[in-house]
Structures are given as C-alpha cells and as structure tokens.
Model the fold of this input.
Amino acid sequence: MKIHELKEKIDERLHYLKQELSSIRTGRANPSLVEEIRVDAYEGSAPLPIKELATVGLSDAATITIKPWDLSILPKIEKALRNAPGGLNPSAYDDLIRINLPPLSQERRQELTKVVSGKVEEVKVEIRRIRQDEMRSLDEMEENGVISQDERFRQREEVEKIVREKTVEVEQIGREKEAEILRV
Done:
C-alpha cells in the first residue's frame, strides 16, 4: 500500500468520526441532529432521510424547524422524529414542524461525553487495525523480495509517524466535542 492510500483510509475514519459526532446533541440546536433520520414517506420506496424531504433550519439557538416540500408527508416526518433515538418532541403547525430542545442536564452531558469517548476509541481501534494490516503487508513485501529490509524499516517508520499524527487528531476532535457538550 502506498502512503497516500494509507492516509486516505485513515482520513475516511476521521470523516466518519466527525459525521458521527455531529449528530450528538450539544447545548444548542443543530440541523444535523435530524437530517439523517429516515422517514417512510412514500409507499413502495425506501425510507428517505429528512434532508431529502424537507428544508431543515433553525429559528433560534434551541429550536429546529422542518418544512416539508410535500405537505402530505408532514405527519410521517413527525412520527419518524418521535420514534427516533434522542428523545425529540416535535410539534406540527400548519406546514412546519418545530422541535424545541430543552437544556441538557449535567447528568445527560456526562452520558454524552461517554458516548463521544466510545466513538473516539472505536476509530482509534480501526486506525490501529489499518496500521497492523500495513505492517503485515510490508513484511510480506520484504519476504517476497519486492522491497529491501532497509526500505521496509523506512516505510514502517513512515507508517508509525502517520498513525501517531492521525491518532492525535482523533483525540483532539474528541476533546473538542466533549468540551462543547460540557459547555453550559
């Protein structure tokens, strides 16, 4: 595997982590909390994410608004929001759904930081697995005569350097999200 391929694989994991953490609620409303919730909008079609069925926005720091493009699916979106994890309580008005997010209790903030820690650890484990695969590949290349022993050592050092840098980046992303959650 080439170094740029290694970086791409690890960057995919970083992107995944950022996406996962964006859906974790902090003290403020954020459209990403609801955009990926799937709705059985139309008979015979697969469930669609809310962002493909409606405009999702904010009316203030604690209120998410959802305005469906097709008003006939408004009750279905409301039902999907009620059934989604996260304890959302939507209210439908004429052509709009509002979700008021109450402030997080300190206990709930602590639970969410544990969730963040778990997701960060999950990504760190995946990065270590990618590293192990790369190291195994380098060992095989040396055994098969594709690269020299010196080249294998040089590439192993490069892999270790990249993995250390990306692991620090993952930890930093986790610390930032935890600080955001704990900020009152």
